[in-house]
Design brief:
It contains 4 helices and 7 strands; from the N terminus they run αααβββαββββ. By secondary structure, it is α+β, with helices and mostly antiparallel strands.
Length: 181
């Protein structure tokens, strides 16, 4: 007969302790700090460059951001990717920069206009500044820029949905100009 009393006493003590002290999970906090999962999930879409930019670093970071941007397109929709990435020599109007130019061919019937528009919205949410957008019945274009420690990086998303032609999405991403030697 002592067991039921002992169990009742333990249960009562536990209930009082929980009522007075509160119940919390191990490692939890009474005042949790919110995390910004959206910005951390989208941060890969924005290239980062150090203030002293070199060609190898420009290549790695520009390609990494272009890969993340291309990943916004479902792999099941992609038929072929033509990548023309390279270090672009300086001209009278621009400095040397690393450029990624990808033509992403998609399956017939894929709505590249809607895809391009959705990509632009995510890029803006990630930190890109929209400079120009244009939508027609056969295409969509968005020009965006982002300021980095090394300067401004530029991005163009262009889609082509011309009837009778394979739908494509063009991604053009330029690093900031490299320092002059």
């Amino acid at each position: 007969m002592r067991r039921p009393r002992a169990l009742a006493a333990i249960g009562c003590a536990l209930a009082i302790a929980l009522a007075l002290g509160g119940c919390g999970l191990v490692g939890s906090s009474a005042n949790p700090t919110p995390t910004n999962t959206l910005s951390s999930a989208l941060s890969a879409l924005v290239p980062t460059y150090p203030a002293k930019l070199t060609a190898p670093v420009a290549k790695v970071n520009t390609v990494r951001a272009a890969d993340a941007i291309q990943a916004l397109i479902a792999e099941t929709e992609i038929v072929h990717v033509d990548d023309q990435s390279k270090l672009v020599a300086a001209t009278t109007g621009t400095g040397t920069f690393y450029g990624v130019a990808r033509t992403v061919s998609t399956r017939a019937g894929f709505n590249t206009i809607a895809q391009g528009s959705a990509m632009e919205k995510l890029l803006v949410a990630a930190g890109w500044a929209e400079r120009l957008t244009n939508t027609t019945t056969t295409g969509y274009t968005a020009q965006l820029t982002v300021s980095t420690s090394a300067g401004v990086s530029a991005l163009v998303i262009h889609t082509d949905a011309t009837p009778g032609v394979a739908p494509v999405i063009l991604i053009e991403l330029a690093s900031p100009d490299l320092p002059k030697k």
